[in-house]
Amino acid sequence: MRSFLISIHPKIKIPVLILLLYVIVATAGISGSIYILDEAKNAECAREMMESGNYIVPGFNYELRTDKPPLHYFFMLLSYKIFGVSSWSARFFSIVFGALSLLITYFFVKKWLGIKSAYFSSLVLISSLHFGVFFHMAVPDPYLLFFFTASLFLFFESLQEKNRFAAMGMYICLALGALSKGPIAVLLPGFIMLLYLLLSKKLQFSTIWGLKPISGLLIFAAIALPWYLLVHRETHGEWTHGFFFEHNLERFASTKEGHGGSFLMASGFVLMGLFPFSIFLVRALSHAYRNKKKDVLLFALVAGLTITLFFSLSSTRLPNYTAPAYPFFAILIGSLLAKQKQPVYRRELIVLFIVAILIVTAGYFALDIEKQYTFLKPQLLLLLPGIIGAGFALKLHKKRALNFTIHLISYSFILLSFFLSEIVFFQIAKQNPVTLSLPYINKDEPIACYKKFNPSYPFYLKQKIIKLESIESIKDFLQNHPDACVISTSKSLQDANYSEFAVKIFEQKDVFENRTTVLLKNKLTKN
């Protein structure tokens, strides 16, 4: 790699290095099974769109799906057409948007804070435990993060340089963000822009007018509104009601799908998501506040804290929600590290070493709880690069330059992330109940489910799962289709008396979920 980098033109050497490091992290384990609930539904929705040729109305299991707007479906669909339907093709464009997010952050910071801050900000992102995982998931969040970040960067560019092309780009990104995740992609950046203008004392009519709001609204409407109007018409308003009320207002006001938690959980997601360099976040926030006269630091400070606070107030909390704060906090951390000449962060390095040990310990106990994965315990040794890197950083920080410490931490955790995704997560994915149960299912027969089922089944079976709501309906289905299976969960079946006509042929707990997948078959044909 070193000889390859030496041969590259100096102006692009650092971006190329950043992309190479990112590819190592982001592509690790990309071909692993799709088994996470949201990934499975998104990947299957795009597959059904391609199968039906209906690119307006999204569906899952051949029924209307109101969870998300369509942009990520369109990119997955394009990937399916180019590469075929698979888990890695469903994730392909998520990785692409991760690379784009990394590059725009690098060039934005380089312009406003210098090349050293830009390089360190990029290392903060690449090294973080969540960044690589986040950008190889078949979900809309990677697309949202790119357009969210780009819209705010372009806003800052337009404001500082009175660049009308940057302003138009901002509206384009806001519109594409709205097609990625909905109103959050417009309302939250808009609030950040307003708050920054207020705190920087630039909230004036002339400033707002300089952002070309009328032209911007026309651009936004031309890009974002047509699909929303078409899906509203095609579904007679059902998609509109489900998406805006159930999956936006209700998700903010009340806990959805058990994803609740305390007010501090959003901050915890940020700290763990940006680990290991989040150990410097408190000091970086203090540094930015003391230097808030520097516009770009105030801007990044406002953006990062606003995103975190917003999702702290939301009733539904997930790690992906706070991810749009990562580029802005990375800017603050990168700026702090670039300004510091000597490695004086002993307390932070002690915390880093302790948390690195706790990560391996937590992995050990997590595998101990999930009994079917105890065979993976020896592979926890692959997480040792984090402990080793943190230990050497602490031991050598007074003897070596800060640059050495930063690179030691960064490369240690890049290696840890690679091993975690490519080996540990990949092996866990292979043991998910959907993959293991597929040989028991006759794909030439109809397939049914009783109450709940793992959403990965439609993606791998490529057919509709018939829903059964009573024990009698299970009996009738198995009698009419003796070689067919009924998918369910142990909880759904706990009070069901099916022993006279059906038998369990498969049972396994889902990966890190409070759900156990069960397959039933006609008692007379169980073999």
Overall description:
It is found in: Cell membrane. GO terms for molecular function: pentosyltransferase activity. By secondary structure, the protein is α/β, with parallel strands linked by helices. It has three domains: 1-179 and 202-251, no CATH class; 345-431; 435-522, 2-Layer Sandwich (Translation Initiation Factor IF3), CATH 3.30.110. 64% of the residues lie in helices and 6% in strands. Strands 4-3-5-7-6 form a five-stranded mixed sheet. A two-stranded antiparallel ribbon has the order 1-2. Helix 3 crosses helix 4, helix 5 (87-113) packs parallel to helix 8 and helix 9 runs parallel beside helix 12. The model has no long low-confidence stretch (mean pLDDT 90).
List the helices and strands and how they pair.
Layout: H1 2-6, H2 10-26, H3 37-52, E1 59-60, E2 63-64, H4 71-83, H5 87-113, H6 115-127, H7 131-134, H8 141-161, H9 164-181, H10 184-199, H11 205-210, H12 213-234, H13 238-253, H14 265-273, H15 281-290, H16 295-313, H17 326-339, H18 346-369, H19 384-396, H20 402-430, H21 433-437, E3 447-450, H22 456-461, E4 465-468, H23 471-480, E5 485-489, H24 490-493, E6 502-509, E7 516-522
Parallel strand pairs: 3-4, 3-5
Antiparallel strand pairs: 1-2, 5-7, 6-7
Protein name: Phospholipid carrier-dependent glycosyltransferase
Keywords: Cell membrane, Glycosyltransferase, Membrane, Transferase, Transmembrane, Transmembrane helix
GO molecular function: pentosyltransferase activity
